[in-house]
Amino acid sequence: MKRLSLLGLATLAFATGASAGPVTNLIVNGDFENNNVAVGGYLYASNPAAPGLPQSVLATGWQFAANSGSGIIDHNAGAWGGLAGTTSVGFLQNHPLFGGTAPVLQQSFVSDAIAYQLSFTLGQRPNNAQDVLVMLDNVLVGGAAIVAPWNGGGTNYSFTVSGLTGNSHTLRFTSGPSAGDQTAYLDNVSLVATAFPTSAVPEPASLGLVGAGLMGLVAVRRRKNKA
């Protein structure tokens, strides 16, 4: 029984070494709840060219493009018609006031994974049709811009992304130019690693060495039992 326990522990060690670890959202504050926006209010990124706008938005983990229509709405601020049932959402707004500067909501993260599952919720201001481009390391996710329908509650999207290299990455949400005042909403951003480099799995030579070590342990136990 003790010999079986030793082998069981070794098998568990192999399983742990080859595991990708617990499921963790690599995006911090993906629901935008940790922010400096007053209840029922909204804030833009800093924009000296538009001093009349409420500015200097902050949200843990997120970066906002300065001089653009990116920011956060809290508790469905009435003038905006945000996503129903949410408390805070990020927004991407195109407006002539911003002089063509594209709005950006982005976050950097560190991971050596080679594949990910990305999910998020997108919505629109009533009767708007603002497109959203989702970029991971400057590669367009899904191959095309997304124009979410306006339905009051948002639409959930999910993508599998693979082929990444390195361990420093950036997830970016932005939007293309539009005529007039158009705004898209973003919420519930999640990015989970699903595959890691094969180097994380023990090589056959390593398995042989450890197997020989286990045989040695069993032999020692047998000699002790005979003594």
Structure characterization notes:
A hairpin with a 2-residue loop joins strand 7 and strand 8 (139-140). The protein has two domains: 1-20 and 198-227; 21-195, Galactose-binding domain-like (Jelly Rolls, Sandwich), CATH 2.60.120. It has helices at 2-18, 204-226; strands at 42-44, 63-64, 69-74, 88-94, 104-110, 115-124, 133-136, 139-140, 155-162, 168-174, 182-195. It is of the alpha+beta class and 227 residues long. The longest helix is centred in the last third of the chain and has 23 residues, at 204-226. 29% of the residues are buried. The strands form two sheets. A six-stranded antiparallel sheet has the order 1-3-4-11-6-9, with no helix packed on it.
